[in-house]
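Lecture 7, part B: from sequences to assemblies.

Below are the input chains for today's worked example.
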Amino acid sequence: MSTRPAIPAGARRRSKSLWFGIVLSVVGLLGLVLLATFNASTGPAGSFGPLGGYRAQSFGSLGERIFLSGTDANGNVIPRSTPSMYGMMFAQTGCAGCHGRDGRGGTVGAMMGSFRTPDIRWTSLSSDQGSHVNGQAHAAYDEASFARAVRDGIDPEGDRLDAPMPQWRLTDAEMAALIAYLKSLR
Ligand code: HEC
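Predicted structure of the full complex, as structure tokens:
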């Protein structure tokens, strides 16, 4: 009669945590896949998405590059705050990831809910019809107040923009290029 050799308790614990690790990675991967498909299927036409889907493209201008991919002229991700869990999910994207490829804003689907973003085409920002997604009105933006909104998260009335709008560390040249691009959006 042979009895099975006893497995030392430590080894058993080790293999348990190995399995736990594998299961966690699989769940994590599944989560990413879900995130991508959920986003593609619920995003408005023009396709919003947190996964930096525009990064592989070539860009017509620095402004377009910042808008679509959130990267600078050297391809580095432009530093920004990541307010809220949503902000973190969009930590690698440009403005288009949340405001849409056409800049018109909309409802952004993310795995555990959704949030709304305003129209940031220059024609809208510079009209005095501008309002927050909650309907609260504010005066028209000019280039200085736009730069303050993007860098410091403050609107023309001095009110704080809500998360998940990040605060972006853009150079003056990048800011000018971005504004020129927003002016070209129709
Ligand atoms: C993670 C999502 C996200 C990203 C990325 C993002 N925004 Fe926003 N943005 C928002 C949300 C949400 C609001 C609404 C905040 C509010 O109404 O208080 C907003 C508001 C704004 C506003 C204020 C508009 C208004 O009517 O007051 C401007 C301007 C703006 N974003 C510009 C940009 C620019 C430029 C970029 C890229 C450099 C960008 N955003 C990237 C989510 C985002």
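Note for the exam: The CA atoms of residues 24 and 30 lie 10 Å apart. Keep this in mind when comparing with the next example.
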